[in-house]
Amino acid sequence: MTAAWAVRALLGGLLTPAFFIVTGRLVETVPQVARDGFASAPGRRMIMLLVLAAALFVASQVIEQAGTLLGLVLGRRLDIHLRERVMRALLRPTGISHLEDPALLDEVSLARGVGPGDFTPGGAVSGFGEIIARYVTGGASAILVARSWWWLAVLLVAGHVITRRRLRADISKIVDVAIGRTDSLRRASYFRDLALGPGAAKELRIFGLRAWVGDRFRQHWLSAMGEVWRERSGGYAAYAWCMALMGLLHTIAFGVIAHAAIQGDIGIGTIAVLSQAIMGMFVLGNPSNADLDVAIGVAAVPHALALESRLAGEATTCRDAEAACATGEMPLRDITFAGIGFRYPGQNADVYRELDLVVPAGKSLAIVGPNGAGKTTLVKLLARLYEPSAGRISIDGVDLRDLDAREWRRRIAVIFQDFVQYALSARDNVGWGAIERADDLELVRAAARRVGIAEAIEALPKGWDTVLSRQFTDGADLSGGQWQRVALARALFAVSGGASVLVLDEPTANLDVRAEAELFDQFLDLTRGLTTILVSHRFSTVRRADRIAVLEHGRVTEQGTHDELIARDGAYARMFRLQAGRFSDTPAAEPSEAGA
Length: 596
Fold this sequence. Notes:
ABC transporter transmembrane region fold
């Protein structure tokens, strides 16, 4: 296909000067046909030339349309190829910290396309084909002129080269400015998507934010594009001088033709060929959208490759290449956090300093603490979404970094508070807990039945094939409580794929305390014998866990069973009574304790 695209560009460029030659010869026959008639040899020659000219014209139209089609197909394939490479690069790192790096996100935006509009590497393919055809046409036209006056051809080519260099310099400046305004363009895109998407639609209307969002979009858009427009308008004067120069040179060229014709040095056919050839050379310096398509479109390619190179070093799944990296049936003994220190990238405050915690295998551990204590961060470290800056996490004594991250994640299932509600079928929303078994509908149903959501799903319009989103035809949505049960079913389904560590990171935070306690109790019953971690800021909902750890100020301050911690009368007991008091008629704490 690429070869056909290249041949088309060459043929498309050659057909135009060929048409010049044929029409010139056609004009030569006019006086002879006027004298001898169409029945004469010149008449028959004219008819042949007319047929040839028509054939060249039709061929040029067919080749142009074929080139457009080939350019579109190749362009789409190139865009898809680069997008897949960018996706693979972003998915390659073990953790997710790179997705929170503004500089890298700017690089991702540039890899998709520089500046606004539809300028992509794929779009550059069609533009490049057009430019090749123009260069071929201009070059062949220059040869036709050079056959009569070589110096005139050189003069015209030189003028067009000067104009082309000026055009490319201006476009390069525009590209550089657009790249420098990527952050503002990303912000403008955010406000645009905020206004057009359903996620914020309710609040934008309730709080009267529609005009505000529109103003912010306009502000960031103009901030980014204003500089681009200023740079573009700044080159207009210089380019106008270049075009004036080209107009002067072409006027001289036509003057030379006129002088030669008056002197009788060239005939009418040559005049026709040379006049068209001079006009054909104009494409060498005359700007078109193809120049922008190519210059701005290809600018994204280096950023895609740089992104790939930047993240290539983060693709390792094991710290030690010679380590076994196998997870086997881990954990068989325990999961240990020893001397853990951690700080989020770009932040000044530590989340943990010297955190120690042991999670016994086959038991349930509840991690409780006030909001902001770092409970979710602990889960992210366990799942290797981030790496600790100090200390180590070990599984049965083996450093977590010495295990293959993909294999370890097959052993662990996590349902976060902000679990994803996939706009896909109900089957996928449960089955993705163990993707390799997602096609086994009976296993999917079994997991759903265990958490009490199977009947609700089977009552949907298309049952398990119903898309769980009203944004799609025949789609349906679930209530908040039903979605939470779907998430729990996803976690349970992960067990069928080999998961032996299940983590619930406050996925029931939107439920009231009694409903959450019931759901946690049910989950503990369903997962008995597995290593289970329950994360909650509600102390009264996790009392049935085998062990409870209190996380405060980046450290584990207390550990034990519910009864042991109540008897100790420490932070857990105080906060437990404070929260429990909200469900009794007697106040359980002084006002000063409310801040806890």
